[in-house]
Structure formats: C-alpha cells, structure tokens
Fold:
Amino acid sequence: MHIPINHIILFAIFFMLIATFGLPRYNSTFILQERHNTMQDSLHIFIDNDAYGQGVFLHEFFACLFFIPYLWYLFILYNAKTFLEMNRKIYFVMPITIFLLGVGIITGGFLLAMRHFVLDTRIIAMVFVYILFLIGEIYRMKTLKKAKTNLASMQKYRHICKIMYLCFIAIFVCVIGFIKAYRG
Structure:
C-alpha cells in the first residue's frame, strides 16, 4: 500500500500541533503547594513568573514550527526530478532550518537562565536533540560538497538525507511526546 507523501506531511503537521498545544499544562500553583526543598521553591517562583511563561510559549511555538523544514526536505528529496533542482530547493529551505535552530537555542538559553541553570531530564533531552540536529545539518552540508561531482555520490547523498530526515522527524516527535508527558 502506497501512502502519498502529502498525506504523511499533513498527518505530521496535525500531530505536532495537537502534541504541542493540545495537551493540558501542569498547574504551577499546585506544585507550589508541595514544597520539597528550597531550590525547588525558588525554581517554581520563576516558573510562575509572567516573563518565564511568555518565554516558554515562544520556545514552544518555534519548536512546533521546527519539524516543517524537515518535512519540506523530505518532500524535496522524494519529488525532485534532477539533482540540480533538488539542491536549489534544499538551499532555499536551509536558512529557515538554521533560523529555527538559532531561535530554539536562544530562547532555550533564556529559559535556562531564568531557571538559574537548573537542569532536568526534559532540558537534557532538548539539548541533545538540538545538538544532534545541528551535527546532522553540518554533516549534510559537508557531504553535499563532496558529492556534487559524481552521479553515484549524489544518489548516495539523497538516500542518506532521506534516512537522516526521517530519523530526525521520528526523534523530534518522540522527544516532544516525552517532554509533554514527563512531569518529574
């Protein structure tokens, strides 16, 4: 059974919007009532802060948009007729990807500073994913420089990129699900 890539992209967009904005948030006033230690108390005071809440919203909003360039890459990789057309379209999407990576890192750093650099499992997972995505983009650019001169290398490059971006989308969905479900 062949499923068109357009249906997969629409399903992924729908799933990410529901996963990011559709699940209920935890109640920070309830958490403030359960005081475990002084570090947790000061942390929850900052979580209750309006600037922190707006920063979280901004970070979640751009994180929700982050999977779109990867779906766009997959669409290009599966539908481009020539390697020249594929490279032109990929170079069009690349600044969007780098912009979203930068916004995610800057807003994440802002939120981490607001938390007094207290890490938890969710933050470590997000940092790992951002580093993985950045390394993947750098690897793709370096591989493209080497592959431009040979047809077999370009076919291998296309195949590697398809696998890499499918893995990136799967990792992204799993990490967003983990972050939304984890309450520790």
Observations:
- Confidence is low (pLDDT under 50) at residues 26-43.
- Residues 78 and 162 are 8 Å apart (CA to CA).
- The two ends are 41 Å apart (CA to CA).
